[in-house]
Amino acid sequence: MKKIIIFCMLLATIAAFSQQLKYKSGGVVYNSENKKLSSNEVRALLANNIEALSLYNDGRFKKTWGNVLFYGGLGLVVTNLIVNSTSDNTTVSSYNSNNPYSSPSLHSEKADMTAAIIGGALIAVSIPIKVGFPRKIKAALDKYNTGLADNYSPRHQLTLLASANQIGFKLEF
What is this structure's pTM? Predict the structure, then answer.
């Protein structure tokens, strides 16, 4: 009988910690059953813990802006390189009628790389932002998970049941 009661209490303790959240790469959060949670579901779970919710929102904000800067910069670099590789920046000067011995001359200009430089700068700025956002999300999930352990108080109720035909204990979790 003691073994059954101890087993039931341990089972209740394990069940209490089953709501923990796990972080995996790319800002994706999973619950204890390895089910992928959307950001709205995570926010709903973190709603009771204001500090964890704030950290999670900061992490998601950093992820969004890191992506905007990275892909915007990548788009600028690629667009500038495609435009410069397909355009012709050479000019031909025509024959000078005042000088009978002159021939047409070919003049080439450098390609304008301003957009590629700006794009490269955006990519460089996005790298520390994209590297830093998982730290915020992990900290939020750690606060949430430790809050579960701190707020958990087992509510076991042991009741003696007796009737005309039987007697026994009822253990409620």
Answer: 0.63
- For the chain, the three-class secondary structure string (H helix, E strand, C coil) is CHHHHHHHHHHHHHHHHHHCCEEEHHHEEECCCCCEECHHHHHHHHHHCHHHHHHHHHHHHHHHHHHHHHHHHHHHHHHHHHHHHHCCCEEEECCCCCCCCCCCEEEECCCCCHHHHHHHHHHHHHHHHHHHHHHHHHHHHHHHHHHHHHHCCCCCEEEEEECCCCEEEEEEC
Q: Backbone phi, then psi, for 107, in 5-degree steps?
A: -125, 130
What is the C-alpha separation between 142 and 148, in angstroms, rounded?
10
The residue among 13 and 80 whose pLDDT is bigger is 80
Contacts of 97 (CB under 8 A, 6+ apart): none
Rounded to the nearest 10°, the torsion over CA 44, 50, 52, 53 is 40
Interval 44-67: pLDDT, tens: 888 888 898 999 999 999 999 999
* Residue 104 β-bridge partners: none
- The residue to which tokens 């790319």 are assigned: 26
Residue 171's DSSP bridge partners are 158
Alpha carbon dihedral 134, 51, 142, 136, in 10-degree steps, equals: 10
Q: Are 95 and 104 in contact (CB under 8 A)?
A: yes
